[in-house]
């Protein structure tokens, strides 16, 4: 808890909401279009709202976006996710992140080394 009685997470959510509110005032048309778009993306469809929130959480973790991590953790909770489901999403994000690093290292780095090393000598 901080001095105002808020947790770190609550503080981050307040900062986010304040920032977004300010942005919406300054860029109303863009904000409206963006909000309409994301609202459509997160509607119930072939993929449930719950699973869309879990996907967004994993992507937020991979992108290391603290505000989105908090926002989508809350979205997951609001849609009935258990802690185990949240942690599995964390695991998927971790696997993707390390897998992406390995795939880039195993392909692009080696290819660039082969191509560039021939020109340096």
Describe the protein.
By secondary structure, this protein is an all-alpha fold. The protein contains five helices and no strands. Helix 1 crosses helix 2, helix 3 runs antiparallel to helix 4 and helix 3 crosses helix 5. The longest helix has 38 residues. It is extended. The model has no long low-confidence stretch (mean pLDDT 91). It comes from Alkalicoccobacillus plakortidis. GO terms for molecular function: peroxiredoxin activity. Pfam families: CMD. This is Alkylhydroperoxidase.
Give the overall pLDDT as a whole number.
91
Helix-strand category: mainly alpha
Q: What string gives the helices and strands in order? A: HHHHH
Regarding quaternary structure, what we see is single chain
Helical content, roughly? Answer: over 70%
End-to-end C-alpha gap:
59 Å
Number of strands: 0
Low-confidence stretches: none
Supply the number of helical segments.
5
The biggest sheet, with number of strands, parallel, antiparallel or mixed sense and barrel status, is:
none
Beta-strand content: under 5%
Domain Carboxymuconolactone decarboxylase-like: 30-110
Protein name: Alkylhydroperoxidase
Organism: Alkalicoccobacillus plakortidis
InterPro entries: AhpD-like, CMD-like
Concise overview:
With 121 residues, the protein is mainly alpha-helical. Helix content is 82%, strand content 0%. It holds the Pfam family CMD.
List keywords for this structure.
121 residues, mainly alpha, extended
């Amino acid at each position: 808890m901080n001095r105002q009685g808020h947790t770190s997470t609550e503080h981050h959510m307040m900062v986010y909401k304040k920032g977004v509110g300010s942005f919406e005032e300054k860029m109303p048309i863009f904000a409206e279009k963006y909000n309409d778009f994301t609202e459509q993306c997160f509607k119930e469809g072939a993929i449930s709202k719950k699973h869309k929130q879990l996907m967004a959480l994993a992507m937020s973790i991979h992108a290391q976006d603290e505000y989105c991590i908090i926002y989508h953790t809350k979205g997951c909770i609001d849609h009935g996710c258990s802690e185990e489901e949240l942690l599995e999403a964390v695991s998927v994000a971790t696997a993707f992140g390390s897998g992406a690093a390995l795939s880039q290292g195993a392909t692009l780095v080696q290819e660039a080394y082969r191509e560039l090393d021939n020109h340096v000598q």
